[in-house]
């Protein structure tokens, strides 16, 4: 039996195709972490755990006929999900009359699932023992100035780049900010005729992103080369059939994903 339980559902292949398109399109419009992180996978739903290496310290050690790998741990790929319901009557009308199906609930659920993925990437999950870019131990910290004044945003980002370079961390630097900080950079920089965001964006070759899950006053610069970090995808975002209840149909949007931080010093968090 297929894990997504589609074969036994009363949903037609044509409607499944519409649901898939709506879910994927909505998720792509929301996801932020995937825009700068290297994707490892999809490796399949059957992969339940993955190794996370400390890139600077991983090594094999032999002792009395045994070889072990130091600087390596294994973590479970958690399931990220969100559920939605389509009314049985609406599906019947769609199937019998050909009226377009209203998939607003599916799109709302896809958005919620995408935001949960980004929340895991940025903040991890303390209860489950997962670290995020903002919560991982051992990362670089810089005091953030007031980004609504002067050229503070530009000088802060430049300082973060300089810090990473001093630690021999080179490559594609990406800045992720909360919406309020993003809007604070939407102003003309005195004496330049340029928006502050344009100066920062040019410094990073356009790799500036904002995410609503960051709340307010948060920003981080990362060197997102795959040797420093990546996002492991087991099962990519898909929709499963759950059950029929009260003549209506329940679905689950799900994925398995995990952020791997291999080099913590490739992260600069502005505090």
TrEMBL record:
Lineage: Bacteria, Bacillati, Bacillota, Clostridia, Eubacteriales
Localization terms from the record: Encapsulin nanocompartment
Gene Ontology MF: a single term: peroxidase activity
Keywords for the protein's UniProt record, in alphabetical order: Encapsulin nanocompartment, Oxidoreductase, Peroxidase
Entry-linked Gene3D superfamilies: 3.30.2400.30, hypothetical protein PF0899 domain
Pfam families linked: Linocin_M18
Assigned protein family: Belongs to the encapsulin family. Family 1 subfamily.
Cellular component per GO, a single term: encapsulin nanocompartment
Keyword Glycosyltransferase: no
NCBIfam families, per database record: encap_f1 (NF041155)
Principal location: other
Entry protein name: Type 1 encapsulin shell protein
Native organism: Ruminiclostridium cellobioparum subsp. termitidis CT1112
């Amino acid at each position: 039996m297929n894990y997504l339980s589609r074969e036994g559902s009363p949903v037609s292949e044509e409607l499944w195709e519409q649901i898939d398109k709506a879910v994927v399109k909505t998720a792509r419009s929301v996801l932020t972490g995937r825009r700068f992180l290297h994707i490892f996978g999809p490796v399949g739903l059957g992969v339940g755990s993955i190794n996370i290496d400390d890139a600077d310290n991983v090594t094999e050690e032999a002792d009395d006929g045994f070889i072990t790998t130091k600087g390596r741990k294994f973590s479970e790929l958690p399931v990220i999900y969100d559920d939605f319901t389509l009314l049985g009557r609406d599906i019947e009308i769609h199937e019998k009359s050909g009226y377009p199906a209203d998939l607003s609930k599916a799109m709302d659920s896809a958005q919620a699932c995408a935001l949960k993925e980004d929340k895991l990437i940025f903040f991890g999950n303390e209860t489950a023992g997962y670290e995020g870019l903002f919560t991982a131990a051992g990362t670089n910290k810089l005091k953030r100035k007031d980004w609504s004044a002067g050229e503070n945003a530009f000088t802060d980002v430049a300082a973060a780049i300089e810090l990473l370079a001093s630690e021999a961390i080179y490559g594609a630097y990406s800045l992720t900010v909360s919406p309020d900080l993003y809007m604070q950079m939407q102003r003309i920089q005195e004496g330049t005729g340029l928006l502050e965001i344009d100066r920062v964006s040019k410094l990073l070759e356009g790799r500036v992103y904002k995410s609503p899950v960051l709340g307010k006053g948060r920003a981080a610069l990362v060197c997102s080369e795959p040797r420093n970090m990546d996002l492991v995808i087991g099962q990519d975002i898909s929709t499963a059939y759950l059950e029929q209840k009260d003549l209506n149909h329940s679905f689950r949007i799900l994925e398995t994903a995990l952020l791997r931080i291999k080099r913590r010093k490739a992260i600069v968090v502005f505090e």
